[in-house]
Amino acid sequence: MTLELALLLLAWGTLVGLDLVSVPQVMIARPIVAGPIAGAILGDLGTGLQLGVLFELFQYDVLPVGATRYPEYGPATVAAVSAAHAAAGTLGIGLGALVGLVTGMAGGASIHVVRRLNARAVRAASERLEAGDPRALVRVHVTGILRDAVRAALVTALGLGLAQLTGDVFAGALTVRGLTLLHLAAAGAAVAAGVAGTLRLVGRGPNLRWFVAGVLGGTAVAWLR
Amino acid sequence: MTGSPPARRRPALGRSLLRLFTVQGSYNYERMQGIGVGVAEEPLLRDLGAGNGGSGGEAAYRAAVARGAHFFNAHPYLCGLVVGAAARAEHEGVPPAQVERLRAALCGPLGSLGDRLVWAGWLPFTSGLALIGVALGLDLWAVVGFLALYNVGHVTLRWWALAAGWAHGARVAAALHQPVLQRAARLSGPAMACAVGAALPLAATYLSGPFAGWSRTAFAAAAAGGVALLWWRRGKLTGLRFGLALLAVAALVGWAWR
To answer: Is B198 within a domain?
Structure first.
């Protein structure tokens, strides 16, 4: 990968990471968006779409309510696409998923750290905040956004670094059969996470009937195709 | 109380709306979204003191800004409701303690309504449609369609919340009982369940496209076993941990099985 492409992916991953919580929450942080755009940047839309769908299913396992801690799959998907692209597209989907899941875990932990740093900044400025100083208020807020941007950039850089490392270490050590095993494990886990997460969301109430109707309809369309 | 605020203040709603897109920028475990809500409310408070004139006006403005940045936690798209309502209440001279009570009272309902309407409704519904689109071969168009459709709802909700908060002030609870909102909350669950339900088999078929023979069977077994395990260990085992464990096993088997 050229330095230009790496920087473009870093910039995209940073925007995606910022979008998750801070600004503007237009859902470019969703893997179904982050993955295909990363793929398009690398000229490998197919891999971006595959990993976008895969991590979108993992995303169904996450309900971001209140101050809960959850993995961050946006920059993770960008890193995953980079890893898969380096390991020859479809054959590298499993490696990409591995990189993405580790990056997602790191991303989730980093959000927690930033929230603690933000709390410390609020405490430090509490006197001026209680005095109603609008400049102090805006400064604390803007610094928080910048902190999150740095966090997102670091998580993306970590993911891209992991992608490079995984390509060097794993790709030579696994045969095509081994890479296929990784791929099917990743896809199987994603579908399992998606189904389990959706069932938790749907619950046992009246929505379950709509869910079953949807599954039957989707299965029929898949079978007809 | 001074009655309706002057019409010239209305344009500040635009600036406030823009700031609301950053409402969680300084999210923290002490005031949660409080700082972001205060930043979004500040443009609506600027002429609070100007009408009264002198240092008394400035003091009223600063006190309101300080109150605006206190603890608040709700769904980010609905924070506009408290921003508009609290700002309007400050303009109407509602006592500070009552403004604080208004903010505290809105946390729970706005959080619960937003989670049901957006995180458990509109977002998975539109995401499910995107998955269906990709699986049916729409590729990037499915992604563009998702962003466009999702954000029509997203921006509309943010604008409605701010405008309704400003229009109702301290009596903002009435806005939450609007028939459109109630109907949307009622429909979002079934729509989400149906769309994601349809997306799951299509996405599974899409992801299993490159597999044939034994690998297709192994994929189905991994998915079915995973659902059973995640359901049985719900609350303890997450999709992320299950995925990492399965990938670690697959890497070991792949390395050994040459």
So the answer is: no
What's the domain range around A36? 3-224
Give the number of domains in chain B.
Answer: 2
Q: Which residues of B touch A64 (CB under 8 A)?
A: 119
A10 vs chain B: nearest CA distance in angstroms?
A: 20
Question: What is the interface size between A and B, counted as CB pairs within 8 Å?
Answer: 353
Q: Could A190 and B211 be called an inter-chain contact, meaning their C-beta atoms sit closer than 8 Å?
A: no
B224 in the same domain as B179: no
Q: What is the pTM of this model?
A: 0.93
Check whether residue B146 and residue B34 sit in a common domain: yes
Query: Looking at the partner chain, which of A104, A186, A191 has a beta carbon nearest the beta carbon of B240?
Result: A104
**Would you say the ipTM is above 0.90?**
yes
* Long-range interactions of B232-238: CB distance < 8 A, separation 24+: B234/A196, B234/A200, B238/A61, B238/A71
Look up the domain containing B98 and give its range.
Answer: 7-193
pLDDT average per 10 residues of sequence, chain B (258 residues):
48 90 95 96 86 70 95 95 95 93 94 93 97 97 98 96 94 88 91 97 94 88 96 90 95 84
Q: How far is residue A122's CA from residue A140's CA, in Å, rounded to a whole number?
A: 7
Q: Are residues B173 and B221 in the same domain?
A: no
CB atoms within 10 A of CB B212: 9
Query: Considering its fold, how many domains does chain A have in total?
Result: 1
Verify whether the Cβ–Cβ distance B223 to A131 is below 8 Å.
no
Are both B109 and B219 inside the same structural domain? no
Please indicate, yes or no, if residue B2 is contained in any of the structural domains. Answer: no
Select from A40, A150, A57 the least CA-distant residue to A100. Answer: A57
